[in-house]
Amino acid sequence: MPHILVFAETRGDALRKFALEAVTAARALADGLGGEVHALVAGPPGIAGKAAQLGQYGADVVVTVEDASLATFSREAIAATIAERARAGGYRAVVLGFSAQGRDLGPRLAAKLDAPIAADVTEASMSGDAIVVKHPAYANKVIVTLELSGPLAILSTRPSAITAAEKPRTPRIETMALASPGAAKVTVKEVVEGGKGKIDLGEAPVIISGGRGLKAPENFKLVEELAAAFGNAAVGATRAVTDEGWRPHSDQIGQTGRQVSPQLYVAVGISGAIQHLAGMRTSRTIVAINKDKDAPIFKVADYGIVGDVLEIVPALTTAVREAKSHH
Amino acid sequence: MKIAVCIKRTPDSESRFKIATSGVSIDETGLKFDLDDFASYAVEVALQLNEKQGPGETVVIAVGPDSVQETLRKAMSMGVDRAVHLKTDVVPPDGLAVAKALAAELRGGGYDVVLFGKHAFDTSAGVVGTATAELLGVACVTAASKLDIAGGKGTARRELEGAAETIEFTLPAVVTIDEGIARPRYPSLKGIMAAKKKPLETKPAQLGAPRVKVKSMQLPPDRPPGRIIGEGVAAVPELIRLLQTEAKVL
User: Fold this and answer.
1) What total of structural domains would you count in chain A?
2) pTM of the entire structure?
3) Which pairs from B238-246 meet CB under 8 Å and 24+ separation?
């Protein structure tokens, strides 16, 4: 049977949001083939507890790999494990999220399994014997439709591009040992968490982003307060601001930074350089606050307010808090 | 150290793109092509590593049509010693096929480190570097935002979406380079003159039969035109109303 294998990425003891999106993409492909979805979840002991949630989103089989060494990203061992499972046969595709881990694992799997790969896909479907995917290229300015031939393909799905949908079933559970890739060539020495409870930019439904219009790094606290008022928001920044050292490079949204598609993107003091628009123009709703009414950000903003961000943002924070308290 | 940098030639990211009449590629008329931004960081990192570590050799490699020779010369004008052009009329959208062509060239080349950009502007797929490492069976660091090599081993930092890891790796290694690691130098006039005389070798790219092909290309649907709803603090209540009733995100 032509089944789909999906790698369900976790962080800490939770499945990542895009892991469920990848399961949804895998479910659609499996349904097109009349096959099953097998989700592989790997982590420290206890991670097998995620099986029910994976079944909720459409996994027929959950392959659990528990190993204490998986507290950090053991890329070589995980790639070897997924490849071993994929080689065990019956798979038409391996699907994973296009995340920091997925960007590393996907090409490793392609090379190990000699399978063609399409990265950063926003749609995937069967077309006869071929897998057809959509991949936004040239900084989201061109949508490329790719066709992958061959018995097995590797696909990584862009976070937030696919909406995770419940397709509940009770999955069969299989356990698997972590494969040994031989002598480790890469060893994790240290992991620094970016702040407790911080929502990642790739997964946040709301993103509040600040640019040079904030005038000084300390004014980013206004952006953080607005994000806190929403409660489900992450804070981003423009390249100009990260280059100045006001915010870490990892917060940069744009063509060379993170590319995001939240439900709501609030651009605070951002002029809207092409480099920035490339990272956020696929957001569902865009709000822009900027003093210059001719700023290019207003060309993509669903709702624009012209004026001083240092006055408007605190007023908006108060109003959002108020609106949230009425719920 | 002997360092290879695999580079890509990509169009200026600020361009407006049109689809060619074939429907399966962009119209290159009027587009300006140059060394990809991430590849330029990789070239800079390679040059700095060899400047710091004493005598070594830096080699730049590109897969593509004859036009990539201009880009290879640019890297040499920055200070790279020599170039290899793996020739093909079209770079296929099959990252593994490109990785195989590069691995065939790199294998047995005696490189201590092979650098790539973490991805290139055109596809942003980031497949080729990591797949090349795997084909070569060497250590791989994907998207390093800091890199240090000393005493026969390497240390790198990688961003992990809200976290960061510091990793150690063995040599030889493939490292793909993230932004913010180094500011690429401008070629000096002397460098540009010198680059003209540096060796550039051309060979056919051993791509095999690509298994990924472009079926079609489209421009994305336009966003509705932007709308300014008001000025100053007075516009905040209207924004809240629209977020609640129209966008339904609050």
Assistant:
1) 2
2) 0.91
3) B239/A287, B239/A303, B239/A305, B239/A316, B239/A319, B240/A316, B240/A319, B240/A320, B240/A323, B242/A303, B243/A264, B243/A285, B243/A287, B243/A303, B243/A323, B244/A323
